[in-house]
């Protein structure tokens, strides 16, 4: 090889030229989640705990209902706090724009324009929401 000859292919193809990188770096520690076939990578020495706990989603309704809180694990009845949704504000703005200024407060009094947020009555953690309008908006 002459002075102006390019480096050999192995050296030119290596993106780590000039760095002290081992030729065969250790493979990352990984484990497979049962049924998924996808590896979970973790730093070496770290432990991975895989549980087969199913995720249960509760369909909340308009009334308080018995729940098991996923945060404090207490069996309790949810408490409901209603609040105006973005749909409530949009309807009020539209009513103002079309000239029904006294009527713009009506959506704030209608249950169908309010979201009902369910909270744990023991630890006050947010559990979910019920929207009376469903997927219409």
Automatic annotation (TrEMBL):
Compartment(s): Endosome membrane; Late endosome membrane; Lysosome membrane
Transmembrane segments: 89-108
Domain LITAF: 47-132
Entry's Gene Ontology cellular component terms: late endosome membrane; lysosomal membrane
Keyword list, A-Z: Membrane, Metal-binding, Transmembrane, Transmembrane helix, Zinc
Keyword field contains Membrane: yes
Entry annotated with the keyword Nucleus: no
Membrane topology: Peripheral membrane protein
GO MF terms held by the record: zinc ion binding
UniProt-listed InterPro entries: LITAF (IPR006629), LITAF_fam (IPR037519)
Family that this chain belongs to: Belongs to the CDIP1/LITAF family.
Protein name, per record: LITAF domain-containing protein
Organism: Photinus pyralis
